[in-house]
Amino acid sequence: MATQTKRPHINVPIKMIFTDAGVSYFISHNKRINKYRLSDNMEEYGIYLVDFSPSTVQRMMLLGYLSKIEVSLPDVVQKRKDVIDFTKLISYAMLYRQFDTAVYEELVESDLVRQWNRHNMRNPIDFKTPIKHEYLNKILEKNSTVVQDVRNQILRPLYNNIRTNQGLLPDEKNIQAFLCEKYLNNMNPLTWFILTAYKDSDSYIEMVRKIQHKLNEYIRRAPIPEYLGLMLIELLITLTSDINQDPKSAVDDDNNIYILWKFNQKRPIAGDRAKLQINISNQRTEFEAMKNSINDRTNKNVAEKSLKDFYSESGDAAMGNLGLYYLSYLSDACKKVNIQFDSFVNRIPRLEQTVINITMIF
Fold this sequence. Notes:
Elements: E1 10-18, H1 20-28, E2 34-37, E3 43-52, H2 54-62, E4 66-73, H3 80-108, H4 111-119, H5 133-142, H6 144-163, H7 170-185, H8 189-197, H9 202-219, H10 223-244, E5 257-263, E6 275-282, H11 285-297, E7 304-306, H12 307-314, H13 321-336, E8 340-348, E9 353-361
Antiparallel strand pairs: 1-3, 1-4, 2-3, 4-5, 5-6, 6-9, 7-8, 8-9
Helix pairs in contact: 2-3, 3-9, 3-10, 5-8, 6-7, 6-9, 10-13, 11-12, 12-13
C-alpha cells in the first residue's frame, strides 16, 4: 500500500561529528576522519560532505554513530528545500529511535521476555542486554518467512484502518502506510527475534497489540518533522534577509548562518527519551543588536527569552509572521502528542555570539 517518493541525494554541505562508537567504526574500516571546529567552538572528529544519501545519514544516526551535524549556509533561499528535507530526515530518525525504545520497553516488561528469561537464565533479556545486530540479523534472514508473517500480522489491521479512514486524502494514506513500515524497519533485531521465537502464543498476540498501539501513537507524531522544517526555514530566510540588508555585511568575514543539530545518545534504561537540539547562530552585529533590543524591552538582566517572544518583539522588519505561525502550530502539535518543545534565544559571551535554541524531547 505504501508508496513514497524519496530523494536519492541531498546537496548541502554538512559536517558530521562522530560519537566514540562512530570514530571506532570509521577507523576500523580505514576511513579518514578529521577534526573540525564547530559553531559552538568545540573541536571534534568527523567528516565533511557536500552531496550525500539521506538514508545513509539516517542509518548512522540510528546506529549511534553521530552526535552532531552542522550546516553552514551563505544562501538559505537557494537551499530551502534541502534544509527542509534534511530537518525532516533528522526529526524522523529521532521518532524512529524513540519508537524502537518504546516498543523495547514494552517487550522487556512483557510475558514473552519473562518466559524467555525463565528458560535462558544465562542469557536474560533486560534493558542492558547488548544487541548483537549482525548475529541476530543472520538468524532473522534464515527465518525471513516467519518475520514477514509477523510484519503482516502487525500491519494488516493498521492498513485497513488507514484505507477506510474517510478523513485522509490519498497522499496522507500513503504517507501513513509508508511510516508504519519505516517504524517497523527500524525496530531492533532482538525485538524481532523474540517475536518470531514465540509466534502465535498468547503472550505474542498481546505484544503484537501493544506494537500496533504504539504505531498508532507514533503515526500521530508524523506531522511534527514537517512543521519543524517549515518553521526553521522561515526563521532562516528572515534572518538572512535582515543580514543582507545591512551594508556592513559586504565587509564581514563570515556572513554564513550556522545550523547545528545535536543528538543525545541512547541509554539502556527505562524511560529513555531521544533529545534533539537545534542551534542557529551568526556573527552579524545586527543579529546582536536585535537580541539587545529584546532584552531592553523586558529585563536588562534576562539572559534568555522564548523564541515566540523573539518573533513577536522584534517586529516585522526582523521576523516574519509566517515563522511565528509555524512556531505556534509546532508548539501546539507537540503538546498533543507528548513531545516536549522549548525555544529560546541566548547570548554566549565568550563567543560573542547570539544563538537561537530549539529543543525537542521525543
